Amino acid sequence: MQAAPMRIIFCAATDPQPWLEALRQEFPQAQLAVWHSGAPPADYAVVWAPPQQFFDEQTQLKAVFNMGAGVDALLKRDIAPQLPLVRLSDAGMGVQMAEYVCHALIRHTRQFDVFEAQARTGQWHEPVPLERAHYPVGILGLGVLGERVASAVAALDFPVLGWSRSPKQVAGVRSLCGMDQLPAFLAQTRVLVNLLPLTPETENILNRSTLSQLQAGAYLINVARGRHVVEEDVLALLDSGQLAGATLDVFRTEPLPPAHPFWRHPRVTVTPHIAGRTMLPETIAQIAGKVRALEAGLPIEGLVDRSRGY
Ligand code: NAP
Ligand code: GLV
After folding, report:
1. Half-sphere exposure for 115 (CA within 13 Å, toward CB)
2. Are 135 and 213 members of one domain?
3. How far is the CA of 89 from the centre of ligand 2 (A)?
4. Which of 45, 65, 101, 245 is the most exposed place for a label (fewest CB within 10 A)?
5. Segments forming the whole domain that contains residue 188
């Protein structure tokens, strides 16, 4: 008797056709479907922020593949405890994050923001160069993306520190870990890069108290989640001068509301959650490799530990 074809279901608020075509290339024999209420049961799901109804109805899943690195939206759902949840591990996001953070860092430390403002009014003025030794870069979260960013920044000869839950060994990066070492990490950081997952432990971690422990005239680069940041505290610290500026990719409310003060703040740069985009070819290649491994009974990387929240 022939084995039943594998069933894969897609559930995300994006055009499903390119995703289904790429899955079809990987699994020509599979039954592929876009989820709708009442859709037949599937074996594997490829999702981004699915509704609760998806999990209420899809009760035969063997694994769920999240189309991103962060699983905070997924973990808001009530999901059978034994169902494996798999997140993206890099999948083309690491290099984008490295580009984004290095761009924001260099724009600030080489004063390109100053030159852009001067150019608008035709001014020729050479400010005193900043010394990179005076701009230690602290990276919150030394996971898949944080490590890639830390290595890229270290390659530019900035002093680099990383903070994570467990100790790390990354060339050119001083590793600090745990809540005990957070104050030492903050005190030695001038440019703070956030690449933590959003969990109950990390929500609101960037607030008046923590940001005040950074070196004076600090610069904030948030590429993780908006809910890590107490936004009114950032605005107050920009006004006081404790923060020299910020580049922010993520916000508590997205899209950022038109009246939000971040849009018009002269020292805040805003981007629309594009620091590390989900790339279709790399994502499907990674998911397909993991589906094959699971079908062969092999272990896979990127399983979400629900007790940790990432
Ligand atoms: P990851 O590999 O899971 O790394 C997470 C890092 O955070 C790990 O080093 C972990 O420490 C550390 N961490 C977690 N909780 C901690 C805590 N309570 N205290 C100290 N350290 C803690 O995640 P990733 O793939 O690098 O992604 C990071 C985040 O980036 C995602 O969760 C997502 O929110 C965000 N993101 C944003 C975009 C965008 O476009 N803006 C794109 C992709 C991802 P251990 O290593 O010791 O466990
Ligand atoms: C995007 O924000 C992701 O988590 O991949």
Report:
1. 11
2. yes
3. 10
4. 245
5. 93-270
Going by CA atoms, what residue is nearest to atom 1 of ligand 2?
68
* SS3 at position 244: strand
- Ligand 1: which residues within 6 Å by Cβ? 68-70, 93, 141-146, 164-166, 195-199, 201-202, 223-225, 249-250, 273, 275-276, 310
- 108 annotated active-site: no
- The finding on whether 94 has its CB within 6 A of some atom of ligand 2 is no
Q: What is the domain count for the chain?
A: 2
Per-residue pLDDT tens over the stretch 6-45 = 999 999 999 999 999 999 999 999 999 999 999 999 999 9
The CATH number of the domain holding residue 29 is 3.40.50.720
Q: How confident is the model at residue 308 (pLDDT cuts 50, 70, 90)?
A: very high
Q: Which atom of ligand 2 lies at the shortest distance from residue 66's CA? A: 5
238-286 per-position pLDDT tens digit: 999 999 999 999 999 999 999 999 999 999 999 999 999 999 999 999 9
Domain check: are 84 and 169 in the same one? no
Looking at the structure, tell me whether residues 104 and 227 fall in a common domain.
yes
**Pair (126, 195) in one structural domain:** yes
Q: Name the nearest CA neighbour of 35 among 69, 4, 66, 10.
A: 10
Answer whether 141's CB lies under 8 Å from 201's CB. Answer: no
Which contiguous run of DSSP H or E holds residue 115?
Answer: helix 112-120
Cα separation of the two ends of the chain? 41
Q: Which residue has the tokens 């008797």?
A: 1
Residue 36 is among the residues annotated as catalytic for this protein = no
Q: How large is the average pLDDT for residues 153-173?
A: 98
Mean pLDDT, rounded, for 164-180: 98
Same domain? For 218 and 109 the reply is yes
In a domain, 65, yes or no: yes
Residues 70 and 99 in one domain: no
**Closest ligand 1 atom to 250 CA:** 41
- The CA-based angle 252-76-48, given to 5 degrees, is 80
Active-site residue, selected from the candidate residues 273, 277, 306, 308: 273
55-103 per-position pLDDT tens digit: 999 999 999 999 999 999 999 999 999 999 999 999 999 999 999 999 9
